[in-house]
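re the bet — no i am not wrong, look at it urself. input seq straight from the record:
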Amino acid sequence: MCPLMWSRRDMLKRASTLVLRRGLSILNNDCVFRVHPSVSQALAENGPVVALESTIITHGMPYPHNLRTAQEVEAIVRAENATPATVGVIRGKVHVGLSSGELDFLARCDGSMKVSRRDLPYVVSQGLSGGTTVSATMIAAHRAGIPVFVTGGIGGVHRDGQNSLDISADLTELSRTPIAVVSAGVKSILDIGRTLEYLETQGVCVATYGSSKEFPAFFSPSSGFTSPYQVCNPDKAAELIESALSLGVQSGVLIAVPIPEEHAAAGQQIEEAIQAALEETNAKSIRGRDVTPYILQRVNELTKGKSLHANVALMHNNAKVGSHICCALAARTKKSKSQSQPSDSNIVVIGGINVDFIAKGKSKSLQFGRTNPGSVCQSYGGVGRNISDCLSRLGRRPLFISATGRDSHSEAVFNHCRHMNTSGVTRLEGASTATYCAVITESGELSLGLGDMDIHQQITQQYVSRFKEQLLSSNLVCLDGNIPISTIRYVCSMAKEHNINVWYEPTDSEKACKPFLSDAWKSLAYTSPNLSELCTMNKTLGLQTPEVLPSSLEQLLSLAVALSRPLLEHIHCLVVTLGADGVLVCGEHQAGSVRLQPRKDKKKRKLCAVHYPALKVAARETMNVSGAGDSLAGALMAGMVQGQDTDTCVRMGLLAARLSLASPHPIAHVLTAHSVDPHRVPHHSWPPPRFLWID
């Protein structure tokens, strides 16, 4: 059919198919940047990671010296209790951290490219391989979240650079990428004075490491120029780097490390060889990027290998010093994070993180098989992420344990969740970050949902066990129903043995059964199902449940009480969400309300329930309903760890839920401790709660 003869319906169908295919292509496309699992794990645990460049492998030395040097440098980093992350490009993919096989591949690779910032797009687009220079390594390391990069020496302003404008991309990269570069200064073949002037103009902080401010000249500890600043040990260097990163100035820090004295003795001979090689380049009219490789090769020949030995020794020393600095920086970061968290906020949330696409119709009902008028917005959800987000906005900042792919969606997620403690979120190569698409009516009711949630199965028992120390020291652990059953059982068994309070958020009727397939549920302290999920829990235990839920509020409350009773034999408290009808809190009676804090003893309890009506939200104000329950649960938890009474906790949750309903985001960005303070709401505005006896 000729496109000009297509009907409007055909064109819309064709357009939607193309959009869907394009979206799937983007989602399934491997990320250009690939991070080695050992590096991902270290970063997730806030451990020290040292980035290393790879041009020394591909262009610095012949095989097998290049491979041996790379292996030795990585071994030094590991020996200093840091994780090496050698950066290189292999078949169009930028690798941050290389396996032994990948190191060998780069060391042997004929025709490999020397990859700077300028070259990255071409090398990636053509599927080529190469060693990354300082500038390209900085880009990759910063993208991966690595703050310290160790190299031999950086590039600079070439001699006669004021006329030729031959200035290394390393300098401009230092001016726009916030990362600390540890190097032996600048090679004396360059104009060191103008290099330092250029760095000053670009706003790059430069400091010499050690007892002197003398700026080193690669093979020589002295260049005749001084650095603006000096740091005498790893702690002082880490303090400088931490300050630079916290200021957000978006420029790097150069730490210049002098070559060790025992290897500087040959410096004079090497300097003489450099001068001779420089004269040869002028005589042979060698220009541009060919100058440095030619000089290094000639200097090695003229010094009979002494420059190569000095180069290797210099790299070894830089790796050792850089690792010390990196470890000191990691220690400072961990200490800073622990001090910034409230002392009573030991909460761990384990669950899903999604990218949500919310499509809201502009009519009361949606018609399938045709285009409905409406609006579409993107937000970030996942039950675990939502609860962690809510707690963070209310000042608790829990440890969030989850998994994403390493793709464009995960980059957006981490940027959006900067206010949260996402150090427990692993980013997996070759996997897709979870996505969810919800189609809702004008009133905010869910009409259709589609989700790609396979990544949640990677929140395994083995991965969660890495955070055992945090789990054991927590006041509360929240699990969402997206995680594997084996992970739920693992946490519940730990809770039983160590008396940890676990909150289970079932997420939907299908997943509500997970803890109830074994005795794991008996170790839960809290759960927050809706009525349908509560039915699933009872049915899984072999208890009778109605086929159809009642419609009147009286019947709903009566059913919720009846279904909660058997679960309260072991679970301390149930928070049954009833949508527009509010919430029913069931548990031990205390002073006319429900006791939220579990008892240490196991004495027989007198059970009751309190029904709290929902706060009204006009239909026209309802943006979505995807995060209301999570907001309620998160705010209720925040009140609990603050030691608030039951009424205050529940009303904090109801206020948070109302904010969520009126927000395009699952967790309202205006959510604060002040905005959910129930004492700010006039007493007469609260619908009175209703007390019910269970037995």
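see?? The mean pLDDT is 86. told u. also The longest strand covers residues 83-90. so pay up
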